[in-house]
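pls ignore typos typing on phone
zinc ion + seq
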Amino acid sequence: MDHHFTGRSTDHDAIGCELHSLIEELYPICRSITGDGFRKTMQVLQRYIPLELHEVPTGTRVFDWTVPKEWNIKDAWVKDGEGVKVIDFQESNLHVVNYSIPAHETLKLEDLRGRLFTLPEHPEWIPYRTSYYTENWGFCLRHDDYLRLEDGEYEVFIDSSLTEGSLTYGELFLEGREESDVLVSCHACHPSLCNDNLSGVTLAALLARQMCEEPRRYSYRFLFIPGTIGAITWLALNEDKASRVRHGLVLAGLGDPGGITYKKSRRGDATIDRVVAHVLRGLGRDQAVLDFDPYGYDERQYCSPGFDLPVGRLSRTPYGTYPEYHTSADDLSFVSPTRLGESYRALVGIFSRLERNQKYLNTNPRCEPQLGRRGLYSSAGKSVKALLWVLSLSDGLHDLLDIAQRSGLEFESIHEAAVRLLGAGLLSPEEGRQDGS
Ligand code: ZN
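k done
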């Protein structure tokens, strides 16, 4: 019973600082959905966990999609008539529209304007833009700098390549006692942006590191993938593994100042949905549980009707609802060690409960068993109450979380009661119908 992931020895302040320094190390790398920036990111994570890297060739058909050409970039700039760089990729990799094709030309400001993107409402921030599936090029810049551009000719240079290559993703499988998997997925394709999604990437990596060191009931599969195309690729190539997923979480946007938000799986009543809601209720800060909707991160693919996996999404402020989202303001100061540490603690709480949550059968269901004879009735009233609730609802239909909810007692005391009853032979695990399946 106690051979579960518990996360009990974690110092959450220390982990928050460690997460933030790892984000700081990964922040400068120019990542994309393919290419060396993504690989380099995975290599950094390999210092923490034995991550396996997969390469899927350009042109591979994955359901309705095709793995795109591989993109790499060395440099990019725009120079004015005097030869002064007015936009410089070396200053921020957000300056280039991600996946821009190579370019070297001179053009008038009026022709350049159509290829420039700014945020007039936040004139000091650089927007983050991509053009993955349409071959194009462009630059992103501060609106303030845009307004300073004078009429005349500009030389544009983008030293990028778009070639036959591969899509990279990282995978870590940790085998548990049961052949049921928990999927933890995060997108790792964004360049210099911290909350979206270096927070999710680093949390998944350090959580995986801790799981490597502890006993596990479930098997865990951690995926570090490019958004959308990565999830589609993994699902297309791993339908057998997908069918083993009993619970799952997409991690994204977990370092910002807002409260924690959980978006339910498409099923809406999966065990993971109930466990996360239960843990968030206990956190006492402004947490929220949202219903499923088909827009969002990679839960879109995992929850597509042909898979319908019990995968929800854990974030803090939902993406798109904070102004810093997809801008240069999503930087190292937007994510804090405190919030990262809190998110880590929430994840540990979720997985340690998930590991212990189970359905049991009362082996003596006809009238109450004689607890006193077994030394179980001597203790105070509250724990007897927990014993009676567990006996009453252990009919193979209710798991410990249901019993905690219905009794109004803490999950911890319900779990402790189950351990004692198991020890006394009054409960047996319900093997046939595992939760979530
Ligand atoms: Zn994003």
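The chain has 13 helices and 19 strands. The CA atoms of residues 386 and 409 lie 7 Å apart. more later
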